[in-house]
Predict the 3D structure of the following.
Amino acid sequence: MGVHDSLSSALRALNSLARTGWMLRGVPPSQAETVAQHSYTAAVLALELAWEARSRGVEVDPLRASVIALLHDFAEAWVGDIPKPAGLEAAKLAAEERAIEGEAPLSPLAKSLYREFNESRTREALIARAAELLATHLAATWYAGLGYPVDDILENTLRAAIKVAEKAGVGEAFKALLERLGLPRPP
């Protein structure tokens, strides 16, 4: 059995695990967003983005997109939050997949939705990915307002989120969501 062999302990880990990328930029752990906070924000954004897209005639299930976003970082309860600058993305993904398939006390449905996100095989998964990137961008705007050096995250996450949203066929809905968030609409 792993460190988090119950659903309760995994959830506790996600609620207390501060995201490493913020701390690398000087945000103290007491102010750094946790993995659970990030996942919640991504889930709400995925729901809103999918709903906006659906209102524009795009065939999408907003609830599915939201739950995929909610679960996208669940494996970090076992693996931790390994930031991109570490250069371990392939190893991190492999470790996360092993954790979800082996140790995670999740239902088959939850595991399937987690895999769907990583495989980006559906419109809902792509919307969840765009929302996850937008959630990081939104947090970066808050940290930038507090004076933390997060300009690279601000630029990279928004650019990547737009690209994923366009791939999902929800680019205009994404721009509308940016306006609702009070964020500048890209050209």
